[in-house]
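It is worth pausing here to work through a concrete case rather than discussing structure prediction in the abstract. The textbook approach is simple: state the sequence, then state the predicted structure, then interpret. We follow exactly that order.
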Amino acid sequence: MLRSLVGSEMCIRDSACSMCDRCSEKQEPRDSPSSCQDAVVPANAGELSNPDVYHLGVPNALRVIKQEQPVAAAMAPLRAEFECVCEEVMRSDYETIVSQPNQLQVQVREDEGTGLLILKTTDIVPGARASELFRILSDVKLRLRWETKFLGWAKQVEDLAETPGYVKGENEVLLYRYPGNVMMKGRELLDRRTTWKDEERQLYLWVHAEAQGIEHDKTTRKGTVRGRTIYQLNMCYGVPGGAAVYPCILTDPKLSLIHI
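Step two, the predicted structure:
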């Protein structure tokens, strides 16, 4: 799916890159070096560059990135969840259920505390930029459009900008609503999302977890249950000839197929 979205009209229409003020309001051709999606990424001495993430692997690269002060500051609202998911990323006792070399790897293991499955994937997209994958996956309105068109999902997302501490693109609260069917109730997730990005190094990191301590007046809708995102880490980074996205996810949906 990501491979078909990269460079598509849906994903580049109206804006070259909503995450970078170097891009003009008008979409530039994809071969233009003035767009941040096609800018040259320098490998500065002493810094973590794109090839280092690829060659070191996400766990080792994350050990370095999480020590940087800007990353720690960006993740502060979800500090405990960030530390927890980082520890999970470091673990190697996973079962590989999908392995397509240089394309896709999917791994799972059972969480000891909840009995739920933790999912880790690495999806490499040839010809993509990390900034492009980041926008496709993190831009709420854009993602809703392509999920509706290509996957037929009817979920709803509310951006709760009135919540204390809210900063667009950095510290957000999002309410996700997924419809149910005759076999199961719908699901809601109320998440806080923290984001860190380094345009120069083409590194993007965002973390979801259950939003705590929010007096939210939108009660759970009838016929739905409120699930819980225990943690979800996503990283987009450059690889030779393209870019990759790496998520690590543990979610408790609080429902089953017989929960009607």
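Step three, interpretation. Residues 79-90 form the longest helix (12 residues). Residues 14-47 have pLDDT under 50 and may be disordered.
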